[in-house]
Design brief:
This protein is of the alpha+beta class. The protein has helices at residues 7-14, 18-30, 34-46, 56-69, 73-89, 93-109, 113-129, 133-149, 153-169, 173-218, 222-237, 272-284, 303-307, 341-411; strands at 241-246, 254-259, 288-290, 312-320, 323-332. It has a 5-stranded antiparallel beta sheet with strand order 2-1-5-4-3, with helices on both faces. Helix 10 (173-218) packs antiparallel against helix 11 (222-237) and helix 10 packs parallel to helix 14. The longest helix is centred in the C-terminal third of the chain and has 71 residues, at 341-411. The protein starts with 6 loop residues before the first helix and ends in a 5-residue tail after the last helix.
Length: 416
């Protein structure tokens, strides 16, 4: 009795020739007979034996790329994802990288840029493990294109620059020229965007300045006014800390408000530099600005600069009606170039307006104090007048009573 044949072996023997159909499909695809190739690929996939062929991931990928060329994006995605799954399971890194790149094109054309970039990131990672410079060049070029579409210009520039280096290493002069133009274009876009962002930041700060000016003109309480000025200056400038000092007659400078610096800390030796900068601004009437105090020749002899690790420094005098009444000091210990010229102009405008508001608030406070003092004097005078009037009334009554008694005695008959 013949040995019983297994079911799987019977299925493999009865199945059509998968290999032949896959080869015919590939040949038709290369010859441009795309619809015929698609039909052959579908037949081949329908004829897959129970034991999956090693190149099944490539067959699915070829069909997916073919359907992409025919414009059938949904089915192209289905077969590409199936090929990716098979390639990942078989640890075919090069194949998966290529299919991820095709999937990125499919999702790109469907407007799914985020998914497209994710597929390209996966492709790039795979190519690091399975080096293929030509494929990596294609992946980086596509990343640059899609990142620019997604308005991620930094990423687009980085990918294009890496692609340029790779094209040069591969000896591809045409790609080098193309990518060099692309890198330059993206960098110009970055510069333009930087200018636009700086412009929008200036517009936002101007609007904030308008709001602050309106608040300054309506605030009459001096301490609330000082806090408002300090908060607005730190916000507009992007400073880390700062303080506001005011002149009080011939006495020493007084810290009127501070942010992120304790009042007692300002008296410590290491803050001598900050106080000296404020003193200089008051004495000269000119703003003091350092984009990097650590390397500024003016401050090389100052130990405080090193102790405080100062980078950006800015101080502007408070001037009201031609008279300096104080100074605003700001700094940032970690970042350089914080107080750009546009920020300096805004802060100078803020300080001019704030100084006027502060001067007016002081005048009003002094006037109210004089008025309260006058009202107090008037009340005391009224009390004194009332007391004197009461005393006078009592004296008048006593005088009237005395003289009335004398008239009674004088007119009475002599007693006998």
């Amino acid at each position: 009795m013949p040995e019983t044949e297994s079911v799987s072996s019977i299925m493999r023997r009865m199945a059509p020739d998968y290999r032949r159909l896959a080869v015919e499909a590939l040949a038709a695809q290369r010859q441009g007979r795309l619809k015929e190739a698609a039909a052959r690929y579908l037949e081949a996939l329908a004829s897959v034996p129970a034991e999956e062929p090693e190149d099944l991931d490539s067959t699915c990928g070829n069909l997916g790329s073919l359907l992409y060329d025919l414009g059938d994006l949904p089915q192209a995605e289905v077969h590409l994802r199936k090929g990716i799954s098979l390639a990942r399971r078989a640890a075919h890194a090069g194949t998966e990288a290529a299919l991820q790149r095709y999937l990125a094109r499919v999702t790109r054309d469907q407007g799914r840029l985020k998914e497209s970039l994710q597929a390209l990131e996966r492709s790039e990672r795979l190519l690091r493990d399975a080096p293929d410079d030509a494929s990596l060049l294609s992946t980086l070029s596509l990343i640059s294109e899609l990142a620019e579409r997604a308005n991620d210009l930094e990423r687009a520039e980085s990918a294009a620059a890496r692609a340029l280096d790779l094209a040069a290493a591969l000896g591809k002069p045409e790609r080098v020229a193309e990518l060099r133009r692309r890198v330059q274009e993206i960098r110009e876009l970055l510069l333009a965007r930087g200018d636009r962002e700086a412009l929008w930041e200036e517009v936002r700060n101007l609007r904030r300045l308008q709001q602050v000016n309106a608040a300054l003109n309506s605030e009459l309480d001096i301490q609330r006014l000082l806090n408002l000025i300090m908060d607005a200056a730190v916000e507009i400038a992007g400073a880390e800390r700062g303080f506001l000092i005011l002149l009080e007659g011939a006495g020493p400078l007084q810290i009127a408000a501070a942010r992120n610096i304790a009042q007692e800390d300002l008296q410590r030796p290491e803050f001598r530099f900050s106080r000296s900068i404020a003193q200089r601004a008051i004495e000269t009437g000119e703003a003091v600005r350092a984009d990097d105090a650590q390397s500024d020749a003016r401050f090389q002899s100052s130990e405080s600069v090193k102790d405080l690790r100062l980078r950006s420094v800015f101080c502007v005098p408070f001037r009201a009606k031609g008279r300096i009444i104080g100074a605003l000091y700001l700094d940032h210990p970690f970042r350089k170039d914080v107080f750009r010229p546009s920020i300096q102009r805004m802060l100078e405008g803020l300080c001019d307006q704030a100084a006027i508001a502060l001067s007016n608030a002081r005048l009003l406070s002094e006037r109210l104090e004089r008025q309260r003092a006058l009202e107090g004097s008037n009340r005391r005078l009224s009390h004194e007048v009332a007391r004197l009037q009461e005393s006078l009334d009592e004296e008048r009554k006593a005088w009237a009573l005395k003289h009335a008694y004398e008239r009674i005695i004088t007119r009475a008959p002599v007693m006998r």
